[in-house]
Amino acid sequence: MVSLSIRKLVAIVMCSAAIGTASTIGVIGISTSGILSGGKGAPGPVASPVAEPVVLADPSVATDEMNNIEIYRAVSPGVVNITTKSVIESFFGAYPQQGSGSGAIIEIEGQRVVLTNFHVVQDVISAGGSQSSIEVSLADKSTYAARVIGVDPDHDLAVLRIDSPPARLTAVPLGSSTGLKVGQKVLAIGNPFGLDSTLTTGVISALERPLRSPSGEQIAGVIQTDAAINPGNSGGPLLNSRGELIGINTAIAGASGGNVGIGFAVPIDIAKRVVPDLLANGRVARAYFGIAYRPVDRRVIRALNLDVNAFGLLVTNVDPESPAARAGVRSLRQTADGYVAGDIVVAIDGRPVREQADFSFVLNQKRPGDRVTVDVVRDGRRLSLQVVLGQAPARRSV
To answer: Can you give the pTM of this predicted structure?
Structure first.
């Protein structure tokens, strides 16, 4: 038997698979890439007969080992390998770039599509052109050209479609990220370092973690896990002990870019909320409030002579055509004697607001047309304003 060190194994895999380096997303992203190729899928080997569905034993009575085996048999056919190729133009000329990631086949609104991370296909979308492509390999090794149906950079999500015979597409069951508990068992399946269909296990280490998305927005409520996640796992499923998709593996913490036992997954409830918009319109209909602001800090307190215990978001500008303006929100204004504080947002729908993430957390769960209650402090008095949210045409203030 030939013995290989981990370093040698990784080197061999990375040379044979030609995988890109890990990209940075807030903490550290766990996959790279590049896009978009329409066209007919290129069938691989003849597909094996469709396997009978695996009936999972009750996790409360099955051994941990048997639970792992059953989940892998049931879910791994629905996990795909995503390979991206793009050509980057620079001052020094054009050079090819290749990336790798994972994805999960899901069924939503009667359609079977591939759910993955935005950052897995981001380079391809940015580069565009006929030399850019995305290929999706199924568990049976058949490979298809993929096209991007829609992206949500704010939550690092993307939906792809492949022209595969329906019999080849096994959907991963959708669970819920509501009610998760720290210590709960989780499993991850993906393609770390090009090693396709790799299973790792662990627990939920923490909940409600913030994570910076590729667009710069904070993704709130992120799941932290110690299940081993590495470059190439991006976009793959995080599963519960019933084999249900509860999160999309997205990032890792660690300067090395490899697994150190701290990984992050976007909650599936976010995906279930935004994917229908992506299927229908290619983008998410984002709720729009219409203010610019800055957090209240010591400098603001001194400059505006505020109460030393003041907190919240000081409104510095209000879009005159926005929902905030229609609700009567007031902004910072300048007078002959200096600046006069406008409204300070201190809560939205009962959630205290001390920084941008608090405000964005609520808005990101709303849709255009929803009504929210915004509490502001004005001239030392607390007021509640009813605001009917609009639709943001593009990335704006909030």
So the answer is: 0.75
